[in-house]
Amino acid sequence: MDALTLSDHEFRQYQKLLYDIAGIHLSPAKKALVCGRLARRLAQHGLTSYGDYFRLLTDRREAEELQHALDLLTTNETYFFREPGHFDFLQNHILGSHRRAQTFRVWSAACSSGEEPYSIAMVLADRLGSGSWEVLGSDISRRVLEKARLGHYPMERARHIPKDHLTRYCLKGVGSQKGTFLIDTPLKSRMRFIQINLNGPLPKIGEFDAIFLRNVMIYFDLAAKRRIVARLIQTLKPGGHFIVGHAETLNGVDETLKPVAPTIYRKP
After folding, report:
1. Phi/psi of residue 164, each to 5°?
2. Domains along the sequence of the chain with CATH
3. In the predicted model, is pLDDT for residue 3 greater than 70?
4. How many CB atoms lie within 10 A of CB 59?
5. Which one of the listed residues 37, 82, 143, 149 is annotated catalytic?
């Protein structure tokens, strides 16, 4: 067998490892993705098979390498103001009934490199201004959380940000930073980014008026979806909103949240 061929048996080992840790099910179609994303790590360690690398990952002394592999296997595509209807609903409906005496809190529960929570923050800043509000972003990957905390992106990532938001909440790079933009400090100060594995017990993060869990449930099987959603809605305030991706649904997953619009649910 070629040294860099991922056998079916080895792929099943990685499938089980990722499911046990993160609740994510890798379909057989993801075999090439696993092979491609981990190949460089094999070379880094001078290993000649994916089986050897799997044994390295399951060595209790190699927690740092296991985190590195999780980062590579769980990073997904995102961009600013993805699925704009959700941000319109947030601004025009959810925030419209917000009582300003209370801190408005939103959790972006699979925030990747930060584009989603910063989009949420721009909407909140636009509507609530200097009022009391905050955004929590979480992800299982430490690598993408580091990018999120920096809030520094290539200029091409700005193409979906409304022009007035780009002007008010972002700084255009100059000199050596030309071709990039940076989220402005006042907006960034409202953000908190922490590592959370949604498949495990949640840390003490308080309650939220809205939770965005978008474009991540497609990677979970039904049992994991039910487990994770049940855990998250415990942190949702009564009357709070739970928002999933356009290709996702809570039908058969949870019966306590009530649909109020496509892919948008409300806790009674």
Report:
1. -65, -35
2. 8-74 (1.10.155.10), 84-266 (3.40.50.150)
3. no
4. 11
5. 37
- Please give the backbone phi and psi of residue 105, each rounded to the nearest 5 degrees, phi first: -120, 135
- Of the listed ranges 48-62, 210-224, 250-264, the least confidently predicted one is 48-62
In the chain, helix, strand, coil percent, each to 5?
50, 20, 35
Share the mean pLDDT of the chain.
93
For the chain, first and last CA: distance in Å? 57
* pLDDT above 50 for 1: no
CA 63 and chain centroid, separation: 22
Q: How far is CA 266 from the centre of its chain?
A: 21
- SS3 label, residue 206: coil
Q: How many CB atoms lie within 10 A of CB 124?
A: 24
Catalytic one of 12, 55, 99, 139:
139
Confirm whether 139 is a catalytic residue: yes
Asked if residue 130 has pLDDT above 60, the reply is yes
Mean pLDDT of 120-130: 95
Return d(Cα 14, Cα 19) in angstroms, integer: 8
Q: Which helix (H) or strand (E) holds 66?
A: helix 63-74
Confidence of residue 76 (pLDDT cuts 50, 70, 90): confident
